[in-house]
Amino acid sequence: MAGGKDAAGYLRIQRRPGVGGMGGWVDGTRHPAGSYNRASMDDVMDRSALDALIDRMRRREARIGIVGMGYVGLPLALLFSEQGFAVTGFDIETGKVEALNRGESYIVRIDAAEIRKAQTAGFRATTDYAEAAGMDAMILCVPTPLNEYHEPDLSYVTGTVDALAPHVVPNQLIVLESTTYPGTTEEVVAPRLEAGNRRGLRIARDGQAGGNCLHLAFSPEREDPGNDTIARADIPKVVGGCSMATRELGMALYGSIFHRVVPVSSPAVAEMTKLLENIYRCVNIALVNELKQLAMRMGIDIHEVIEAAKTKPFGFQAFYPGPGLGGHCIPIDPFYLSWKAKQFDFRTRFIELAGEVNTAMPYFVIDQIAAGLNEHAKPIKGSRILVLGLAYKRDIDDLRESPSLTIIELLRQRGAEVAYNDPYFPQVGHGRHYALNMTNTPLENLGSYDAVVIVTDHSSYDYAAIVEQAQLVIDTRNATKGIESAKIVRC
Hints:
- The protein is of the alpha/beta class.
- The chain has 3 domains: 38-265, NAD(P)-binding Rossmann-like Domain (Rossmann fold, 3-Layer(aba) Sandwich), CATH 3.40.50; 266-359, 3-Layer(aba) Sandwich (Rossmann fold), CATH 3.40.50; 360-491, Rossmann fold, CATH 3.40.50.720.
- It has helices at 38-44, 47-58, 73-82, 94-101, 112-120, 155-164, 184-196, 244-255, 267-298, 302-309, 333-341, 349-359, 361-374, 403-413, 463-469; strands at residues 63-67, 86-90, 124-126, 137-140, 173-176, 202-203, 213-218, 237-241, 261-264, 384-388, 417-421, 427-430, 435-439, 451-454, 473-475, 488-490.
- The strands form 3 sheets. Strands 1, 2, 3, 4, 5, 6, 7, 8 and 9 form a 9-stranded mixed β-sheet that branches. The protein has a 5-stranded parallel β-sheet with strand order 11-10-14-15-16, covered by helices on one side. A two-stranded antiparallel sheet has the order 12-13.
- α3 crosses α5 and α9 (267-298) crosses α12.
- It is elongated, with a radius of gyration of 25 Å.
- The termini are far apart.
């Protein structure tokens, strides 16, 4: 079997020319490999129908529908298109659909040429969920934010499922990729699909009588905006299905575009896997954020400490402090799990504490701005402050949960006159949790601002020139490393 197993016993799937991407994928889909039970699959779905769908996936003839043409769904659609699949993108935003059908891109890191190339393979976009009836697989990549009480907001998931359910067809594979708490796929998505479809279709389960059914799985997205060092196809794909047959279909689907697929025993395991990955990062970032505040009081450069610590070749992974967490995953996931844990009479104290530390970081930045201005005998109220960077991390056009938004709002609340500069955002209006309505300010006359605050360390900024021209620089990202100036407050 091409590919073999890795050290943990998982199947390592390798694409081979002419084999349709399934070179290392055979009957042993259960992990550890080799415990696969074909009889259980025959109970759920007619074997010939299952094999026919898998064959279409191998031959790149399966029709793929992806709901949500955003930072996760659009790159995934392009990855399928690169492998020759005809992909239909679904989105409720007419503007996005029209742009894609014109061959245009609205995401900076995705070139319009990639959209046009995908169109030659059959890619198109639509707002009409009725077209889902013509798809062999539907992949849901929709937002899962928090509400104002920091509780899970699954309205995008439930709204999508409710719109999709009337149009599902027998033996169709439906995969949720949106980050969520364990149990969502089976406790929220499955019942709505069963209740909403017009054919009386049930979700495929091991051991149930054969016949027409729907196949439901969870496979967490692992998109990392701005990361150009790892090809998307090289990021292993975790898949958990509601039945063995579903898992087999999921592995066939993703094995056609990813070099390695990791099967797990259930959707809940796959859901928990994504939460663990991101909570691990959240907790460690909280640790260095707290240590940074202590180190500042002690007169120690925390960044120098981290650089020294990471020379240890084992037992340490470097994480870096900042002005707060951003993006869809790390600021959100801990709250999803802590909310779910309460249903089991369990309090995730460690995770909640990390969330508190990270959530407080924008307020810490405000205190440092106030302290820096105070050294110049100025209050925040009435001061002209320029914020550098709106995106949640460098060199991307993604505002989701960005600490910049909170920092700007806090400065405004304290009476500051705030402007921003970000090469990726000519203007910013309002979103689910902010209403800024601001226009990008050119990097001119920096000396006219009482303070310049570096919140996102875009690589296009000339930090030496910024320090030279500004009266005061508040650096939350260590962007001015190596630049010595009394103007700089590093926090």
